[in-house]
Write a structure and sequence with these properties.
four-stranded antiparallel β-sheet; 2 domains; Alpha-Beta Plaits; Arc Repressor Mutant, subunit A; alpha+beta
Length: about 160
């Protein structure tokens, strides 16, 4: 993979702000040709630097309960448990961690009752889960997929 330069980072930032922006507009903003933009975006996609995705708002889809669930797994079963968790449509993220929890998942539900059912009837049936620590999201302050950073970040 070729190292990202300033133009690549600018392209990523522009696409992050509006993934539907025409290549001609990106080219105009950056003062380069449309062909340059097209080839760079193609290379970035092929190299797996980014992918085009949509990010629905769970609240607007009726998913009013968002939970972060820390799981303790039995030794040797972490990967198997993670694979089973990944199959649930309510689960949007599964990650292995060091520290208090072996796995952390993020899941969205229509109601508290649906969350309770998930924990008591779904998680309890997965061989290898020793304990679950459920935390409800009360307020969201930031949710982004942007990892493109300028050289400096100013905190105020």
């Amino acid at each position: 993979m070729k190292k990202l330069d300033h133009v690549d980072r600018q392209i990523l930032q522009i696409l992050h702000e509006d993934g539907r922006i025409p290549y001609t507009e990106i080219a105009h903003q950056l003062g380069v040709s449309e062909g340059t933009i097209r080839s760079r975006i193609t290379r970035l996609l092929q190299d797996g630097v980014f992918q085009f995705v949509i990010q629905p708002d769970p609240e607007k889809l009726g998913l009013h309960v968002q939970a972060i669930i820390g799981l303790t797994t039995k030794l040797g079963l972490q990967k198997e448990v993670a694979e089973k968790l990944s199959k649930f449509s309510a689960v949007r993220f599964v990650g292995a961690y060091s520290g208090k929890h072996d796995l952390i998942i993020q899941a969205c539900f229509h109601s508290n009752d649906e969350l309770i059912t998930f924990v008591n009837e779904r998680l309890s049936q997965i061989e290898g889960i020793a304990a679950a620590d459920v935390s409800l999201e009360l307020k969201q302050y930031k949710d982004t997929f942007s990892f493109v950073q300028d050289d400096e970040v100013t905190l105020q």
